[in-house]
Amino acid sequence: MKVVIIIPTYNEKGNIERLVQILEEEIFPQIKNHKMNILIADDNSPDGTEEVVRGLMKKWDNVDINVGEKRGLGAAYVRAMTYAIDEMGADVMFEMDADLSHDPKKIPAFLEKIDQGYDFVIGTRYSQGGSIPSNWGLSRKMFSVFGNLLVRTILLKFSIHDWTGGFRAIRKEVFLKEKAELTDFMGYTFQVSFLNKAVRDGFKVAEVPINFTDRTLGKSKIAAKEYIIDLLKYVITSSIKEKIFGPFGKFLVVGGIGFILQAVILRVLVEWFNINPSISNLLGAVVAIFSNYNLNNLWTFRTEQFKGFGQYLWKMLNFYATSAIGVIFIQTGIIFLGDNLIGRKYYFLYFIFGTGVLLIYNFTVYRFIIWRKKPHK
Ligand SMILES: Nc1nc2c(ncn2[C@@H]2O[C@H](COP(=O)(O)OP(=O)(O)OP(=O)(O)O)[C@@H](O)[C@H]2O)c(=O)[nH]1
Ligand SMILES: [Mg+2]
């Protein structure tokens, strides 16, 4: 595969030559099964980074540069990834800082994960032996650790440990799929949103532990305050959107329709046809579950819709069975326990609580068993 290491630079004259040299002389010779290239994404750095890179391009013909206006790190990456795919024929792209904070020796470990079939490989400083610099001051450490913890908590995605890092290997398919949604993001927010969208779309993510070291030359470009606000805005709104307008919100709407159906059928059968309330309720439940199943299939979990009538029927059977288990053991069970352990006085509270737990159970079963996400490709 053709691999392009993309290195964004803004005033990195003092670092870029050293990094390119290490990559060319120490790292690339070890990698036999991929074609390795370097692309510097420079934003007209006033310190003359571009001239240094032009010199490096004379020495190594697998080095290229893409220059543009300075519009933040995210914009530089979107521009350079587009260039890497269109002009260089990249299959896989790396994100890597210019300031030697990212250890080039880790590149083979990222490629190993790509070879295993992963789509998006991230360097992690917060798990499996990864680390942040021990000489960072307490506030910088706290900022880094809590920033990531906050992102994981708000997005409710705990299996990924490092959301903000910028050492990554990404297949071109991921970028092409998400590109349209990635404009207008700045520094850390670009990193978080890119990864979040890849996870949402079912791309396979792997982590490689890295030991982040402090830059020794040049100045930091991260404007902490701006990025924190930008980042928080992004994670909070995307999380709310995902929870309300995503599958969970639709699942609640579908369940609400089912509940109304059941209630109407119950009343009509009892009041107009004088049928026994228990039987009427069961009949209502059968219709409500049928409606829930079909609406969830057509709308909530549309992307995982069933193909073929056989699978449709088999999954419907599963759906009826798991729904029954939920109502009998979870909802009714909680009412039964409350009634016997605490007393009848609060029976309606047990019902409300039981229904809340039931919702979580149902959604989990639907999402992870019945309409389980298919792996990408
Ligand atoms: N092209 C481009 N590169 C940028 C921009 N902002 C930052 N970079 C580059 O992105 C990489 C990461 O930026 P850094 O300033 O090192 O951010 P950081 O690693 O979080 O902060 P430090 O630990 O202080 O270095 C470096 O290679 C920068 O030169 C930008 O607006 N445009
Ligand atoms: Mg840095």
What do you see in this structure?
A seven-stranded mixed beta sheet has the order 3-2-1-4-6-5-7, sandwiched between helices. The protein is elongated. The protein has two domains: 2-243, Spore Coat Polysaccharide Biosynthesis Protein SpsA, Chain A, CATH 3.90.550.10; 247-370. It is 58% helix and 10% strand. The chain has 377 residues and is of the alpha/beta class. It has helices spanning 13-27, 49-59, 73-88, 107-115, 138-155, 172-178, 187-200, 224-245, 247-272, 277-300, 309-341, 347-370; strands at residues 2-9, 35-42, 63-67, 92-95, 120-124, 168-171, 205-209. Residues 8-10, 12, 41-43, 70, 72-73, 76, 97-99, 101, 166, 215, 220-222 line the site of guanosine-5'-triphosphate (GTP).
